[in-house]
Amino acid sequence: MSVAASLKRSLSRIPKYIFRRPLREILCRRPLHANLSKPIISFTFDDFPRSAWTVGGRILMANDMRGTYYISLALMDSVTHLGEQFTRGDLAELLENEHEVACHTFSHYDCRAVRLSAYLDDITRNRHEFESMFPCRSLRNHAFPSGRASLPAKHCLARHFDSIRGIHPGLNVDSIDLNLLRANGLYSDSVDLGHVRQLIQENNSKKGWLIFYTHDICNQPSAVGCTPRHFEQVVQMAGESNALILTIKQSLDHLLACSSLR
To answer: Domain spans of the chain?
Structure first.
């Protein structure tokens, strides 16, 4: 058989849906095999508006749950289209109450709009400034601002973080890509509770890791936020499921422990 014929035959065996996926989802992977006996659900917040803590954090704590907050320190004490942003006091309270604080670059940079060196420098600044405020703490996990990932960033950031989260929907099952964790938006305007319920049920059946993310939580949320009622209902569904409710760091620790038992 000729080389061309052999290649054609090999390509024919690859599912066609693979070629419809962006290369950044296929290449520069850092796989971790999931060997869970129970599913996991994580609640995460990006940027983050104060309401994600003063409203969302309180809802989680009332249900004995904790979340992961991805911070861009340049936004601290500012006001954006998402409302008031977090304060240093908010960060201290989060940490005191055993929530996780993670990295979202310092300036909320889009890694596909700036040079990779500038993106890495901005991350370094975010981590150093956080560690200067909280010397015994570090930012171990990262999320791409606006979910915009690139192959060079995936490759380089693997040396600096335990995980990198995007906004590509779906479950983290089987071979999990630690360089681009899947996550699902909680948006009152565009994500209905029926879809959320289906995700939780599917996660239960597959014993996967389901990550949710949102921004502001208020009665009149932005397009990337949700109402307190919406968030409460999702938290309630998660609590009634068979899943462990863990932060990103806790989830990784649990996954690694389970993998070592294989």
So the answer is: 30-260
Mean pLDDT, rounded, of the chain: 90
Question: Cα 55 from chain centroid?
Answer: 19
| Verdict on whether the full-model pTM lies above 0.70 | yes
Contact, 211 vs 8, CB < 8 A? no
What are the Cα distances from residue 224, in Å, to 105, 181, 182, 214, 233? 19, 19, 17, 6, 17
Mean pLDDT of 141-168: 92
Instruction: Round to whole Å and give the CA distance between 115 and 130.
Output: 23
Query: Distance (Å, rounded) from C-alpha 56 to C-alpha 197?
Result: 19
CA angle at residue 52 from 54 to 226, to 5 degrees? 120
- The CATH classification number of 30-260 equals 3.20.20.370
Question: Which residues are 103's β-sheet partners?
Answer: 71, 142
What three-state secondary structure class fits 178?
coil
pLDDT in tens, 103-118: 999 999 998 899 999 9
Based on its alpha-carbon atoms, the radius of gyration of the chain, rounded to whole angstroms, reads: 19
Query: Is the separation of the CB atoms in 23 and 151 below 8 Å?
Result: yes
Please name the amino acid found at residue 72. Answer: S
Given the structure tokens 């192959």, which residue do they identify? 151
Measured distance CA(173)–CA(29) in Å, rounded: 14
**CA–CA distance from 9 to each of 13, 16, 19, 93, 103 (Å)?**
7, 13, 16, 58, 44
